[in-house]
Specification:
single chain, 150 residues, four-stranded antiparallel β-sheet, 31% strand
Length: 150
Amino acid sequence: MRLISYQPQVSPWTSFDRLSSLRDLLDSAFQLASPGPQTGRGWAPALDIYEDADHVTVKLEAAGLKKEDFDISLHDDNLTVSGERKSETEEREGESFRSERFFGQFSRTVTLPAPVKADGVTATYADGVLTVTLPKAEEAKPRKIEVNVK
C-alpha cells in the first residue's frame, strides 16, 4: 500500500480550495487502500430509514434513474433495493474534465426495525428519491394497555 502524506502549503488559495484539494487527496488514498466504485464493486446510493407507529419508510437517493431501473424485494426482515444507473456518453472538446458521479449496478439491503406486512408495501419515485413505505405488521404496532382497578 502506498502512503500519501498531506503537506500543507502557504498559498493565496481560499479555504474552500484547500479543503477541495485535501478531499481529492483523501479520496485517492481511500481508492488505493480498498476497492472502490470504479473497480467493479458498484456504488451505493445514500438512504434514510424512518419509523413511526404504523410504518417503516426507506428513502433512497438515486437521481437519474427511471422506475424500471429499480428492483425491490422483501425477504423476512430485509428490504433489498437494487438497480443500475447507466453511463452517459458525452462528447467533449479538450483533455481536461472531472467526473464524480457513479454509474453501474448497485444493491442496498437493510434490516428493517420491525416486522412489516408484505402485501401493503408501496414504492414511489420522485425528484430523484425512491420512497418505499412498508406498513408495520399488527404485532409490531404499539398497543395501549388499559389499567383496571380492582
